[in-house]
Amino acid sequence: MDTHIDTHDELKSAHVLVVDDDHGFREQVTAYLSDRGLVAEGAAGGAEMDRMLERDRFDIVVLDLMMPGEDGLSICQRLARKPGPAVVMLSAMGEEADRIVGLELGADDYLAKPCNPRELLARLRAVLRRRRDGSPDLSASACYAFAGAQLDVTRRRLKGANGVAICLTGGEMSLLMAFVTQPNRILTRDMLLEQAHGGDAEIYDRAIDVQISRLRRKLQACVDRDLITTYRGAGYLFNATPTRL
Hints:
Layout: E1 15-19, H1 23-35, E2 39-43, H2 46-55, E3 60-64, H3 72-80, E4 86-91, H4 96-104, E5 109-112, H5 117-133, E6 143-146, E7 149-152, E8 157-159, E9 165-167, H6 170-180, E10 186-187, H7 189-197, H8 207-222, E11 228-231, E12 235-238, E13 243-244
Parallel strand pairs: 1-2, 1-3, 3-4, 4-5
Antiparallel strand pairs: 6-7, 6-13, 7-8, 8-9, 10-12, 11-12
Helix pairs in contact: 6-7, 6-8
């Protein structure tokens, strides 16, 4: 029998939006999360989600992949273009390729359906914890400068000397902060998993590779050289010296 669990600090009052065209599943998940202290609401698709995001602030979106009309991948891509809620994708298609695509488009995690509500709750907690722990002390400094670019941590925005401004997803931001706070040092894949994703190696077995590739492309759009050097068999090095502003 499933019993209620204590709500961890990172989930207290967290506002969750479940976007799924399956009314029964949507109701089941929102009821389960609400019973455990979260503020959980549901939306049947992208249009309803947009209206709700304009009305309220949500910490995390649980997003189904396969929906009529605009699908989950398209919605995920839209959400990743600007600072906003974290995204956990759900899909009845458990193929690794689908999971990688979801991560490439900016999802913070990916879970196959049908899923155990307790596992979903654990994933939500982990994503929110990573977002919390991956941020530096904003009271000390909310901006960094390196290689002619500026990083606004609060807005999760990277702006290059060429005028290009790009928003980072939560996962990209956590990964970049791991590099920025330890520049000119080779960081192993396990170190990056620990620092950027809380050590969830099983859950994020390919996320580091995917996110480094995506982060590298965004950095290259703002800076005229590759700032992330790959040391095969060793790890990755951030080839710049950041300055707090």
